[in-house]
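Q: My labmate handed me this sequence with no annotations at all. I'd like to see what the chain might look like in three dimensions before we decide whether it's worth expressing. Could you predict it?
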Amino acid sequence: MSYALHTLTQPQATAKVQAVAAPPVADQLPVIDLSAADRGPVARRLLHAQLHSAAHDVGFFQLVGHGVPESESRALDAAMRAFFALPAADRLALDNVNSPHFRGYTRTGDERTGGSRDWRDQLDIGAERPARIPGPGEPAYWWLQGPNQWPAALPSLRTAALTWIDRLSGVAAKLLHELLASIGAPPDFYDDIFGAAAHPHLKLVRYPGSARDGADQGVGAHKDYGFLTLLRQDSVGGLQVEREDGEFHEVPPLPGAFVVNLGELLEVATNGYLLATNHRVVSPPGATERFSVPFFYNPRLDARVDPLVFPYADSAPGTTADPANPLFAEYGRNELKGKLRAHPLVAARHHADLLIPRSAEVAHRPPAMVA
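A: Here is what I predict for the chain of 371 residues:
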């Protein structure tokens, strides 16, 4: 089933879209205005048709009308650029290798996707909470809860980043409600696994241009493993999404919009009716820098994700099984799996007891989502 209503109804938003050079049709993502949820039943029905189509057919869309003040966007952007302009010694003082919670600064080339290095550096930030060290018999994913690392020379960064996490948590919660309603599910079906103990994740990312050896993997092709990702990108471009033709297509930056994609847990919870889509970033040419801010809306670490009850469940095609990437019903196990793979230096220093040889790991992987 497909709903082809992808145009904006708000004149101001339409003007913004038209101001961007029109890419080929295959490159265009649906543009969805979240403010339509508050403009009466007719506008909300149109919103739901758009969301249904985007989430079922594409798994990606551009979100406008989200209500995030431009002042907060500018504050975060200024603080992020100031962080990456700090002396290397100041950034390395926050090296995530020193954090068993995978928080802090990752040097260019130290993160891996698909086993290959990503040519970017970044600061990983989460909810500001005390460390929780797993006790005997407790799941190892509690290592993911812990304090952030902040640069002493830039106190504005802490304020801007934590404000952003709070703001986008609210946007994502509203978006998830409207998305579930758009496919006939109870909007509050997953409220209990979020709330005050949710596990949001924010990255401040810089792509410093092309690698010296000519490799162009800014970040390798992957799917996100949570619920929703909201990305603020600059004007440089480089984000690519795999479409139905099997090719990766550029996502042209749209001023003021978030690029939204669905995570693997929503795909599994709907038995493949909603799509988690492969995406990647190609390094910008030469010494051109690209900045982006992905925000990951994730449930509690100990949340168990139940299958969604919705009227289209019988027509769901099923998920694509990947023996190298099992999905677990308990969210924290999925995130810990991803962190151990992506940050091998942190894993080796703090969590060697959790590592097993890759060949043995693949040989013992269960299919789809397991308990």
